[in-house]
């Protein structure tokens, strides 16, 4: 059964010119693009998106980082799209958790600057797609 997930190429990924690389991996996996937009997130959007991390030590830095430059927001769709994109992304820490062959494992070093976001569950995907693409 097809499902949708919310993907971000974070500002570090855009700055480094990795948008095409990320989209190519999504498409090669067999997933489809349902929406795509380059934009600079305002603080309210970033705070809503990362509400689960409010109060954590890295939260303020995370919101600063996500709002600090243009990002690419996408809705990606296909069979098992949510776990499939998490697999492509790799673990949160690009060195300690993500393995080579994943986006974070191939291109990342620091945990904050880990290039991409992907929804972690069906509930998260529904919530996040509403935040970034309310008309979809
Ligand atoms: P994301 O939500 O961005 O897809 O990443 P994730 O599920 O793999 O990781 P999560 O635990 O949700 O963390 C959200 C983002 O916060 C930054 N972070 N920094 N300095 C730190 O210890 C730390 N921990 C997390 C990362 O940008 C991470 O992706
Ligand atoms: Mg997360």
TrEMBL record:
GO CC terms: cytoplasm
Top-level taxonomic group: Bacteria
Cleavable signal peptide: none
Reaction equation(s) it catalyzes: a ribonucleoside 5'-diphosphate + ATP = a ribonucleoside 5'-triphosphate + ADP; a 2'-deoxyribonucleoside 5'-diphosphate + ATP = a 2'-deoxyribonucleoside 5'-triphosphate + ADP
Pfam family, one: NDK
Positions of the catalytic residues: 117 (pros-phosphohistidine intermediate)
Primary location group: cytoplasm
EC number: 2.7.4.6
Compartment(s): Cytoplasm
Family membership: Belongs to the NDK family.
Protein name: Nucleoside diphosphate kinase
Lineage, highest ranks first: Bacteria, Bacillati, Actinomycetota, Actinomycetes, Pseudonocardiales
UniProt gene name: ndk
């Amino acid at each position: 059964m097809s499902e949708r997930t919310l993907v971000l190429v974070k500002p570090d990924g855009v700055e480094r010119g990795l948008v095409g690389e990320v989209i190519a991996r999504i498409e090669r996996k067999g997933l489809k693009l349902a929406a795509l937009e380059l934009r600079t997130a305002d603080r309210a959007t970033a705070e809503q998106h990362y509400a689960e991390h409010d109060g954590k030590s890295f939260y303020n830095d995370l919101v600063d980082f996500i709002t600090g430059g243009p990002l690419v927001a996408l809705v990606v769709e296909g069979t098992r799209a949510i776990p499939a994109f998490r697999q492509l992304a790799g673990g949160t820490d690009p060195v300690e958790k993500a393995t080579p062959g994943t986006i974070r494992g191939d291109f990342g070093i620091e945990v904050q600057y880990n290039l991409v976001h992907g929804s972690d569950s069906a509930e998260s995907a529904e919530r996040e797609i509403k935040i970034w693409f309310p008309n979809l």
